[in-house]
Structures are given as structure tokens and as C-alpha cells.
Model the fold of this input.
Amino acid sequence: MKLQDNFGRKHDYLRISITDRCNLRCIYCMGEEGIKLLDHRDVLSYEEIIGFVKFLAPLGIKKLRITGGEPLVRKGVENLIGGLNEISGIEDIALTTNGELLAPMIDKLMDNGLRRVNISLDSLKPNTYKEITRIGNLNKVLQGINIALKKGLTPLKINVVLMAGVNDEEIYDFLKLTLDDPIHVRFIEYMPLDGHDLKWSKRYLSLQVVKEKATALGFKLNPVEGLIGNGTAETWRIHGAKGTVGFIHPVSNHFCASCTRLRLTADGKFKPCLYWQEELNVRDTLNDPPALTNLIKQGLAMKHEKHLMSPGIENQEQGYVRCMAQIGG
Ligand code: SAM
Ligand code: SF4
Done:
């Protein structure tokens, strides 16, 4: 069996959500009160996750991303990384984190084979950072970034969800971050996925704005090829900079035609697309290879050609029922 869908797309990348819990409450991700959390018994164990990846690796999965919720709040995440690292065929394991817990955990994560992280950081101003995350502490994230750079956890990517009237005044500061350090800032379009933030259409900004702003500020952007793990980002380098600037624009210009991603949710659902509701329960089939093969075939056959997020989404059918922390961003 090949991990190919009805549109000829081959999948080599699995995003694994290991928890729906989080130490922050970002305004674009969930409401102030948080989300209704999964019962611990419904969350896949590390052994189950490793078993699933062992099954998929010979079928073509080579790249893994560990996400959540906040993956660093789940105990023993380093053991999961260690276990995944031993699976033959897995070439790249990355982790997406809000960075608040990274500094104290970095040694044990790296000792178990973590080689790179994406840190989500939407503001470099303490007050705005607090406004976005509701409870975050910017200093802790900056410490995490500094130590990751010092220890060589690279390429170090910083994900910035751009929002009108919230952090769009900081485009210059984020662009500047790429000049002196090997930091890869990736601006991401705000997606209408949270089901909570009724201000999405007011806050959504096309990333075209960043390009225009960069040019207006006198930065000359040159295209870059070949940054590890850059399937969805259009990548540029400011002339003379050590790092790069990426644009991930799922709303204004989607990249569904070249999608190579599959997802596993914390409660063990195989999800072929972030946007659409379809998902299949993996847990019951983990000890039954023929049933698991069927489930994966069924999942691939369900994959839609594209999502429907666009600047006019409010007038369209909405596919999602869970927010990013529940699906695994
Ligand atoms: N807690 C970790 C973190 O924040 O990096 C991992 C999970 S989080 C759901 C993964 C990514 O999804 C983050 O970079 C976050 O900024 C992004 N995200 C969450 N909701 C989003 C939305 N509505 N639009 C765009 N990106 C979103
Ligand atoms: Fe937590 Fe990440 Fe969602 Fe922020 S984006 S609330 S850090 S899961």
C-alpha cells in the first residue's frame, strides 16, 4: 500500500498531537476558559503512538512533527522522541511549542534525539504577548529561543500568526530578528479554525501585507530553496541576513495541491486534513494490521482536494468542529 490519495498526492509527513492540554490560552486558538479537555484514558499512550508510526514508516512516512495542545506539558515527551527516533525510515522529528517550558527541558529533549523546534511567538512586546496568550510570559519564551540557538537546535523557526490591530505593527521587528541570527521567522495567516474568536474576519490579514511592508521598509527579499521541513512555506532571505522569512498563506493562497500531511490527534483519530471533519479511530485497530491497513486506505480515500478557508469563509460551509489545540496545529 502507498500513502497516496485520490488526487495523486503522496504522504510522507505525520503530525502527531500528543495532548489537548495547554499552559496558554491564545486568543486565536481557544476561548479564555480553555477547551473541554479529553479524559486521560482517551489519550493515546506513547506506546500506541510509536506502534502507529512503526506501521506507517514502511509505507512512506519519513517526517514527524510533535504538537498539541502544548506538547511540553505532557510528561515524558522526551521518551516519546527517543522511541520515535529509533524507528527505521524516520528521517526528521520536529516539535512545535509555545516555548515557555523549553529552556529547562532542552537538554533532555536533545539527548533523546530532538534536532529542531518551531516556536510560536506572535509578539516581541510583553504586553501584546500577554494580550495574545492571556497568561504567557515573554521572557520565558525568549530564554527558550536563546538557549535553542546556543545549543544548536536548528533550523530554529519562529511562527508568527499575523493579526490586524494586534501584532501587525511588529512586522519590522520580526523581520529584523532574521538579520543577525539563524532564525527563520514564518508569518502564518490567521485561520478561521478556533470556533471562538468571532473577530476572525476583522483580524485576518493576507500575508501580501508583509511583503509590501518589507519592500516599503527597504528590505530586499531574495527567494530561498531547500530549508529543511519547508513544505508549505514560501521562503525568502533579506539581503545579507543569517535567517530567513517564510510566508504560510493557507487562506489567501492555499497549498492543498502539494499537501503531503496526515495527522494523528491526541485521542487517536487519523485525520487526513486539518480542515475537514473526517477522522477515523486508530486505537481499535492498532493490534490488527489488516484492519489498520483498511482504516488508512479509507482515510486517504476521504481526503478532500482542498479546504474551503478563504477570506469569505463566513459565507461558506465550515468543515471543522475542533480548534487547533484539539486537532493538533
Ligand atoms: N502549543 C504549541 C504552539 O503554540 O506552538 C503547539 C500547538 S499550536 C495549536 C500549533 C500552531 O498552531 C501554533 O503555531 C499556533 O500559532 C497555530 N495556530 C493556532 N490557532 C491558529 C489559527 N486560528 N490560525 C493560524 N494558526 C493557528
Ligand atoms: Fe496553546 Fe499553542 Fe493553542 Fe496557544 S496556540 S493556546 S500555545 S495550543
About this structure: The chain has one domain: 13-327.
